[in-house]
Amino acid sequence: xxxxxxxxxxxxxxxxxxxxxxxxxxxxxxxxxxxxxxxxxxxxxxxxxxxxxxxxxxxxxxxxxxxxxxxxxxxxxxxxxxxxxxxxxxxxxxxxxxxxxxxxxxxxxxxxxxxxxxxxxxxxxxxxxxxxxxxxxxxxxxxxxxxxxxxxxxxxxxxxxxxxxxxxxxxxxxxxxxxxxxxxxxxxxxxxxxxxxxxxxxxxxxxxxxxxxxxxxxxxxxxxxxxxxxxxxxxxxxxxxxxxxxxxxxxxxxxxxxxxxxxxxxxxxxxxxxxxxxxxxxxxxxxxxxxxxxxxxxxxxxxxxxxxxxxxxxxxxxxxxxxxxxxxxxxxxxxxxxxxxxxxxxxxxxxxxxxxxxxxxxxxxxxxxxxxxxxxxxxxxxxxxxxxxxxxxxxxxxxxxxxxxxxxxxxxxxxxxxxxxxxxxxxxxxxxxxxxxxxxxxxxxxxxxxxxxxxxxxxxxxxxxxxxxxxxxxxxxxxxxxxxxxxxxxxxxxxxxxxxxxxxxxxxxxxxxxxxxxxxxxxxxxxxxxxxxxxxxxxxxxxxxxxxxxxxxxxxxxxxxxxxxxxxxxxxxxxxxxxxxxxxxxxxxxxxxxxxxxxxxxxxxxxxxxxxxxxxxxxxxxxxxxxxxxxxxxxxxxxxxxxxxxxxxxxxxxxxxxxxxxxxxxxxxxxxxxxxxxxxxxxxxxxxxxxxxxxxxxxxxxxxxxxxxxxxxxxxxxxxxxxxxxxxxxxxxxxxxxxxxxxxxxxxxxxxxxxxxxxxxxxxxxxxxxxxxxxxxxxxxxxxxxxxxxxxxxxxxxxxxxxxxxxxxxxxxxxxxxxxxxxxxxxxxxxxxxxxxxxxxxxxxxxxxxxxxxxxxxxxxxxxxxxxxxxxxxxxxxxxxxxxxxxxxxxxxxxxxxxxxxxxxxxxxxxxxxxxxxxxxxxxxxxxxxxxxxxxxxxxxxxxxxx
Length: 947
Prior knowledge:
17-stranded parallel sheet; globular; single chain
């Protein structure tokens, strides 16, 4: 952990202090000498850090030593960052001064400006000296512990196949599942009662939640209950939150009420007379009063209703009045081996399996019957290729650790987690432990987490790619090792996931005082008061009406702050928060009710990441925000009331990601061209005159943004001026651009404009909307790496290009176009099928070779979707060709195509898993089961059909 902090500090020391000494030697005195001594001490400490990190698990004194080292590292990092920021600001101010008057030199800058430099240099020198003395003491102490040099893991072992562990198959729980289902759908144990309570009790990591999920999704259970509700309770047992979660699933939205009795009354009315299944997952509280408050609201539901509870504690089953307690037992060694093998031997050859199975069995036997342990160890071993590596894991000294804090982590899963954890490089461990700052059961987002890692300085640029690419790699490794789970994908970029609560316990155990969650139960408690000063990463979860916990102001070294509240007090509290907590690097205020960002934000000089997503009442961002020259990510997506960004946004020269989609922001201010490191810009609106034109950037300002990876341009319009600006933007030269959205204004002159907006050939995702031209651009067919294509509201386009020839296209959306026919030209096989070939040869033609998803919406004039008069892959004797069309198609949706008469034969032969047909009367009559459609049998084999 500390090593992940030390390495970048050593690099920064060399650069920053060298510059400081060069610029003003006389002011810093013996700083160079102090720095050399500091670096020497840090290097000697770093050499034994791996050994210290492993010994801290069983030696509290070592842990305390490491804690002191980490505290000093944080202090040092802040000092160095303060100095780097000062240098950056001075350079920016000099550049602006020289721009205003080229005759002015540095010496002619204001005396106040020069004096500030002198004072700050001296201040930094004193801080470095103070830190150096602390490190000197820590370095002397290390000798006491007799640390050894330990070969640390520095390189990641590459994934060989899939990114995530396949959790679709659950092994060894068939009997328990049948028992649970029978209890859920069977007769009540007491005829007089409306609701039976069934409780699953077992160790953490034993599979209680998985079992409950299996029963919850069972077809018999789904058919039996009118309403099904799933609530993850965890800690604390918050009755208001639970009631709101129930209402949200019953009614589709959660009420703004905060009074428990009012909420429970609504719950009672919503379920009255209905057969209900309520799952309360991961219940901890054995305070019967809390349960007694909730219980009466379920008395009005229909007989046969059930409450299914999962818990680690048998006392919970007692206080909830359980009718059926099912003890979830450990799995047999044989089943644990099956789970382990399923993960560890993915994509391995038969020879590898035979060579490693005997060692694998011995490793799997250490799972002690816990499926989570089997997944964790399997995830570890899928990286190991040689027998020596497997034997090294089997004989690891970590298996001998018995000194485990049983109150913090259950020992059965602790050791496998520890083994997998220490197999990671220190930087990846740091990224994992950072997740301990989030509350249990918190749904994280991959792209957001990676930006937070970057903000903390955990990721470094590599020769092969950006920090974002490095973060993606770290995420994939942690996911494959079962540190993350419950993945949900919303589009290619938005991956959401959670941590198992045992894994979360483990992360918190390893971070101790660094990460903290404050909620209604801990607010004002002794734990918060005594540990808050050492906290570095903090989540405040206060959904109920309460005042801001001022004790947080004591956390002077706080680096991450997430505040989740819907109460108006936050706006009044922010100025003091910004004044007191100057070290913050990541700030998340998403979905809060604030109306403005106060001027004090300009004092957060270390701030890298600011998340204001869905702050619906936010109206203004302070201009002082533009003083945050370290800011890397600004996210104001879905801030409806926000109309403008700060005018001087061009000063944010380190900005990498700017997200404004769904906000009220009408234009990007001038100066965006200065932010040459920008990677994401999801809302560049072309100003078409009006009051904002003098303040708004034009397309020319995109010219130097050559690191952009994702770009959305709105309100594109024809005309010579706009075509000239678009040509100057030089999109074709942006070799890192992977995702592009072009939104036009329906003007027919767009034909010329769209051609000059040609993207690079490596583009992977393209969206074109509101295009008024007659023809799609010629460059579209040059995008041989394109994976996702969306064409929407291109209302004058009658003929589609041969999209079937795009070799890597996986998803295609066609919406609201003038197309009348989907024929061989659309497939791209017309010319290929008739091409001349030598006698005796067979032409193999594949259209849409990788297409998995096809959505056709609002093609109101399309009548014919031509088929090919042969089965997929069947040889045609006349043309001597084998034609394969959409061989991987899985998902087909056809919506609002009233004239479409039939599906082509190649679609009917494709391996479709889900077919959806809406507002297509002819197709409904032809294929619908209820209407006894004549061709129902042609689609009846598809697993999921919605007509």
